[in-house]
Design brief:
Blueprint: H1 5-46, H2 53-78, H3 85-127
Protein name: Sll0939 protein
Keywords: Membrane, Transmembrane, Transmembrane helix
InterPro entries: DUF1622 (IPR012427)
């Protein structure tokens, strides 16, 4: 089995690199979400319009959901080289928590979008 050692080391290095890339993309998504959300808030403030709270939540929440997807991908990748059941259990628990966070975040975003659509429909009817 000595011949497989270099292959295992290469796989481990590749998995760590891929996991790092996925985690970096996740952090980048949070940063982009923050920047775009701040742009929306500042534009609204400059125009002296109402504060677009729902739009801000939808925008930032979408970026957070994407970031969680990348984090979950990194967790899955890291399970391929997990050396023990304890480490695998920890990664599994983290993955479950992130999956639940993502699920409930998406549910909340769906409700916010539905609420925003209802408000737009109501204002369109009021203008008639």
């Amino acid at each position: 089995m000595m011949g497989l050692e270099p292959l295992k080391n290469s796989l481990s290095s590749f998995v760590h690199l891929l996991g790092f890339c996925l985690e970096t993309l996740s952090a980048f998504c949070v940063l982009l979400g923050l920047i775009t959300t701040l742009k929306i808030a500042l534009a609204s403030f400059r125009r002296r319009q109402f504060f677009p709270f729902i739009e801000l939540r939808l925008n930032f929440g979408s970026w957070l959901a994407l970031a969680l997807e990348f984090q979950l991908g990194a967790d899955i990748v890291f399970t391929t080289i997990t050396p023990s059941f304890v480490a695998l259990g920890k990664l599994g628990a983290i993955a479950v928590i992130r999956t639940f966070l993502n699920y409930f975040l998406n549910k909340e975003l769906e409700m916010e979008m539905k609420f925003q659509n209802e408000l737009q429909n109501k204002s369109a009817l009021d203008q008639l």
